[in-house]
Specification:
alpha+beta, two-stranded antiparallel ribbon, four-stranded mixed β-sheet, Hypothetical protein af1432, 247 residues, binds fe (ii) ion
């Protein structure tokens, strides 16, 4: 058979509506962030993950951490010059990044990516879903890389959530180094300066509870990942502890 094929009709592109709904090329199927937050299966993943973390003695990994990571990832992407659609994907990936903990801590990025893929595979455009699951799978320092702008934003958002409200134990003698570092953090803020092209993690730490060196002991790997993530967004990463620039 020969001849020139008729040009294919234009395919409607999936995207984000002004209301924040993620649409697919086939029609109105899609999920807004509010629908993701209200999805019973995804909510059960987050609750179950937090129960496992509690059982293992880890800091809070529930809805507070999920919503905060979502919001920060969204803001990082908008303030570093990315479009609304990309920022919405960062928001969804940030919200769901730790659900793999409902199995176990090891490889929870990868298991979480698979859980989210199965939960959303019929409800999102495949390209958007692949961006989200890759960001989820790559958010931890031991096996993660900044594989996209969305991935970079989730890494920065996740690692900047250091705060005393995440510590579950009230008996101070039981504190381990992770608890001490989190409990010592009175304030944390991730500042994106779009003019200077910097992303700065600003921490206020009570040195009576944790020394700055302790912070470095457990956060060195995380900070290296943050540096790579900021690079992926075209920015330089800075770390400010008690107004002193440390990186
Ligand atoms: Fe994680
Ligand atoms: Fe996390």
């Amino acid at each position: 058979m020969s001849g020139t094929a008729e040009p294919a009709p234009p395919t409607p592109q999936g995207g984000i509506t002004p209301e924040g709904r993620i649409t697919t090329p086939e029609g109105p199927r899609g999920l807004s962030f509010e629908e993701i937050q209200g999805d019973p299966e995804l909510s059960s993943f987050i609750s179950a993950a937090d129960r496992v973390m509690e059982g293992m003695g880890y800091t809070e990994h529930g809805f507070r951490h999920a919503n905060l990571t979502a919001r920060i990832a969204y803001n990082v992407l908008i303030r570093s010059g990315h479009d609304e659609h990309t920022a919405n994907l960062g928001c969804a990936a940030g919200y769901l990044h730790d659900v793999g903990n409902m199995l176990t801590r090891d490889a929870h990025g990868q298991t979480g990516g698979l859980l989210v893929y199965h939960a959303l595979r019929d409800r999102m455009p495949s390209q958007d879903l692949s961006t989200i699951v890759a960001a989820i799978a790559n958010h931890e320092e031991d096996q993660g890389y900044s594989v996209s702008e969305v991935s970079a934003a989730v890494i920065l958002a996740d690692k900047s959530d250091v705060h005393r409200s995440r510590v579950r134990k009230t008996g101070r003698p039981e504190f381990d180094i992770h608890d001490r570092v989190n409990f010592a953090a009175e304030q944390s803020f991730l500042r994106v300066d779009s003019t200077a092209k910097t992303i700065t993690l600003e921490l206020t730490i009570d040195p009576q509870i944790s020394q700055v060196m302790e912070y470095f002991e457990i956060f060195l790997g995380r900070m290296q990942l943050c540096r790579m993530a900021a690079d992926a967004l075209g920015c330089r990463f800075k770390l400010l502890i008690n107004d002193a620039e440390l990186a």
